[in-house]
Design brief:
Shape: globular
Distance between the termini: 21 Å
Radius of gyration: 22 Å
Strand order of the largest sheet: 3-5-6-8-10-11-12
Largest sheet: 7 strands, parallel
Bound molecules: beta-L-rhamnopyranose, manganese (II) ion
Low-confidence stretches: 1-5
Helix content: 40-55%
Number of helices: 15
Mean pLDDT: 95
Strand content: 5-15%
């Protein structure tokens, strides 16, 4: 089973330092120049670098393996075989990019009988645990906790016995999460309909609220329950929690610590996600994010590869709320990507930096000037104020934040030079793979 003894090679500090040494002088010069540019705008670069250093985004355990589509999956060498291997890979990501201090687990994919051992294993590698996720969107053959099928739904199933099984699984996730030090459960269900008439919309929604209330009733103190909406897939006609409206109605019906999680890929094309973010902040119902990027739907592409401006505009809302609401504003930030054609570690390294980049750029927005342009109805200059922040190259800030944490100036280059993938490929024999596969 869990082959902890043959764990992956650990990154040696002197190796990273030697790689950094080749780039450090140029970085220092670039950082000094950017500092001067920002000073002219009345911004202290050190304030931005300090904020970026504190900013973390959780890595999803399920993204450490190769993803796939309904048509195929192309596994790469050295894929993690179990949750301990996933932790090893996530530790590499955090070691090199210093931006992903916590891992988000998915059960029963990451099921373990000894969560305390897993917690210690992760802690030894400098990692904690963010929100846990429940999977009732597929069957789990051979798993005694899931004898009934989720083919026709889980928390909203017409059969109360299936609903009870799904509720019990969510409670199990909370139990595991408590042992791991998590503070939130994220619930995403695939429940819905493929045919008009298949499902009674109103009754299914009522069953959802009732089931989620049953989970919420057992939520430990200090915990939050995150409801994740998604427009379609696997249900292609109607999904029970298809949009932020349904999610908000449910969260309001359930209770104060039940909030709405925004996965960037889970909306119709062209939807104004940054405005949804603003509305959820207004309602005090913004749970947090699953970051990824998309062109067509729930593509689960790497954060920022398609539309970095949208990512920036989302962070523009978040920074605005952070400055208006103060310390109480603390959404959960997670990546949720499917790495079908890249080495997952390289994608996670890059995506964590993309999210930090959007945050840093949003911190550069001159909010007083923007407010004046808004008040005086000057759309062109208001837009230019945002653009000025967006086009600023904050790379020296991101790299300096990493260097100061003894991480890599250029994480992907150091990762490639390390030979990690080849080393774990020797430790982790490949499993045959066929057919399609979800992340
Ligand atoms: C879903 C959704 C969930 C994730 C699964 C794997 O589309 O984004 O957050 O847990 O995929
Ligand atoms: Mn998601
Ligand atoms: Mn998704």
């Amino acid at each position: 089973m869990n082959d902890i003894t043959k764990s992956a090679p650990v990154f040696d500090q002197s190796f990273i330092a030697a790689q950094n040494a080749r780039l450090a002088d140029d970085l220092a010069r670039d950082y000094e120049h950017l500092g001067a540019v920002l000073r002219r705008r009345g911004i202290d670069i050190e304030t931005i670098t300090a904020a970026v250093s504190k900013f973390g985004v959780a890595a999803p355990s399920w993204a450490a393996g190769s993803g796939g589509t309904r048509f195929a999956r192309f596994p790469m060498a050295g894929e993690p075989r179990h949750v301990f291997d996933k932790i090893d890979d996530c530790a590499v990501v955090n070691r090199l990019a210093a931006a992903t201090p916590a891992v988000s687990l998915h059960f029963p994919w990451d099921e373990t009988e000894d969560p305390l051992a897993l917690r210690a294993y992760a802690a030894n590698r400098g990692l904690g645990f963010d929100a846990v996720n429940s999977n009732t969107f597929q069957d789990h053959p051979g798993n005694a906790r899931h004898p009934l099928s989720y083919k026709y739904g889980s928390l909203t199933h017409t059969d109360p016995a299936v609903r009870a099984q799904a509720v019990a699984h969510n409670l199990r996730c909370i139990e595991l999460g408590e042992a791991l030090g998590s503070k939130a459960l994220t619930v995403w269900i695939g429940d819905g309909a493929n045919f008009p008439g298949q499902q009674h919309f109103g009754k299914a929604f009522e069953r959802y609220i009732e089931s989620v209330q049953a989970v919420y009733a057992k939520l430990p103190a200090g915990w939050q329950l995150f409801l994740e909406h998604k427009m379609y897939e696997p249900a292609f006609y109607a999904t029970v929690i298809q949009d932020w409206g349904s999610s908000l109605l449910a969260a309001q019906a359930v209770g104060k610590n039940c909030k709405c999680l925004v996965d960037l890929g889970h909306h119709a094309p062209n939807v104004n996600i940054e405005m949804i973010v603003s509305r959820l902040i207004h309602a005090d119902k913004l749970a947090g994010f699953h970051f990824n990027d998309s062109k067509y739907g729930d593509d689960d592409l790497d954060a920022g590869v398609i539309d970095p401006y949208r990512l920036f505009l989302i962070f523009n809302e978040l920074v605005d709320a952070e400055q208006r609401n103060g310390a109480g504003f603390n959404p959960a930030y997670m990546l949720d990507q499917s790495h079908n054609v890249t080495d997952p570690i390289e994608s996670l390294l890059t995506s964590a930096a993309e999210v930090q980049r959007a945050y840093a750029q949003a911190l550069l927005v001159d909010r007083e000037v923007l407010a004046a342009y808004q008040t005086n109805n000057d759309p062109l200059m208001a837009s230019q104020t945002l653009k000025q922040a967006f086009v600023t190259d904050v790379q020296p800030i991101l790299a300096t934040a990493r260097l100061r944490k003894a991480a890599a100036i250029d994480p992907v280059a150091v990762y490639r030079a390390s030979g990690y993938r080849a080393a774990v490929a020797r430790l982790r024999p490949a499993k045959p793979s066929g057919g399609g596969g979800i992340v």
